[in-house]
Amino acid sequence: DAGTLEINYQRFQLEGLRFPKESDTCELDGKTWLCGWEAVNALSFIVDRHWVTCRANGKASADVTPAICKSGDILDLNAYMVRKGWARTTPAARKRYGHLERLARREGLGLWRK
After folding, report:
1. What is the pTM (predicted TM-score) of this model?
2. Where does residue 94 rank: exposed (0-12), middle (13-18), buried (19+ CB within 10 A)?
3. How does residue 46 score in pLDDT terms, banded at 50, 70 and 90?
């Protein structure tokens, strides 16, 4: 999905967020669009061009570690994906990222496209 990164053979999931799978589609004005593919590309666009670091933020399940990741040691990727409308917050992350999700919804960004 759009929220999983692999760094040095370790997989990280952007913590507190839900993402569409790459194959997911969305509806807009009765037409289907590839929202999952666009979400994956939004994250890829940032991480392909910058150094990424992830800090584990929770207990790993299976082979994925929940984390807060930064690009270029500045840009919070978790916040970026929510603000651009490519991720939904979980109840546990609403205090941290809920205001960004509300802005993205209001502006019709990403998954909230109008």
Report:
1. 0.91
2. middle
3. confident
